[in-house]
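Progress note, sequence design subtask.
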């Protein structure tokens, strides 16, 4: 596979189903007290070792520009751009590295409040309701969520699970979330390399007002545009070349939106 690939988000993929919970925050608005601020969750050396804000990025380093996210170019790294079928827009970037997969998404966040603590609690609750398991553990990057997600076979048979690790870092006015799957989950050295990859990402929040928990817009890299316009481009790739401005899920503005 080349550096870039497109993939539609299917409803039968358990990791994708769980990931979408981080976008739809209606239940979170109901469950969390607006008067209680959530502290940010990030490594103490985040500004020096990442994930980086666009103002902190190394200008001499070469990045793949995806709009709201920039990925440092490196040998052996594959990028999969995931398209939401209902809106035909890019909604996630999956990094394929050393046989494991790290899916990343960036969201707008309040200036003085973090999102990882409440989102982590919501994920754990909803994954458990779906029949999976979620255990919070401490890691060098901060609190992570070790999960086993229920897998439903095409024939309707269940009973199997798929492991995934949810990681998150609160930055200045943004939140970066990752989902790690594959061999790295059982190999501490590989886990460390994937976490370093996660921490090398640059988030481009921009200065304009964006509601908290809104997915930052992703765009097709210039290197991919020519491939999308080629005669043999797939329908999914052509649709992704013109991502919709619509947002994922419904938004209910709260008093905290003004802080964004």
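Output:
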């Amino acid at each position: 596979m080349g550096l870039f690939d497109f993939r539609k988000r299917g409803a039968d993929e358990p990791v994708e189903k769980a990931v979408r919970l981080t976008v739809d925050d209606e239940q979170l608005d109901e469950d969390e007290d607006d008067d209680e601020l959530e502290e940010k969750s990030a490594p103490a050396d985040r500004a020096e070792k990442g994930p980086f804000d666009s103002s902190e990025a190394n200008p001499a380093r070469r990045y793949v520009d995806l709009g709201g996210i920039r990925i440092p170019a490196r040998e052996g790294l594959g990028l999969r751009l995931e398209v939401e079928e209902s809106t035909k827009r890019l909604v996630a970037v999956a990094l394929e590295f050393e046989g494991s997969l790290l899916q990343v998404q960036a969201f707008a966040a309040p200036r003085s409040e973090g999102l990882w603590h409440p989102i982590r609690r919501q994920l754990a609750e909803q994954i458990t309701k779906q029949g999976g398991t979620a255990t919070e553990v401490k890691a060098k990057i901060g609190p992570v969520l070790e999960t086993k997600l229920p897998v439903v076979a095409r024939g309707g048979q269940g009973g199997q699970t798929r492991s995934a690790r949810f990681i998150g870092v609160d930055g200045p006015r943004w939140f970066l979330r990752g989902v790690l799957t594959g061999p790295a989950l059982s190999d501490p050295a590989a886990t460390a390399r994937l976490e370093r990859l996660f921490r090398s990402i640059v988030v481009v929040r921009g200065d304009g007002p964006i509601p908290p928990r809104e997915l930052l817009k992703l765009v097709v890299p210039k290197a991919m545009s020519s491939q999308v316009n080629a005669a043999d481009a797939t329908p999914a790739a052509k649709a992704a070349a013109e991502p919709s401005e619509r947002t994922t899920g419904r938004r209910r503005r709260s008093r905290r939106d003004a802080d964004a």
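Residues 8-33, 228-260 have pLDDT under 50 and may be disordered. Work on this subtask will continue into the next period as scheduled.
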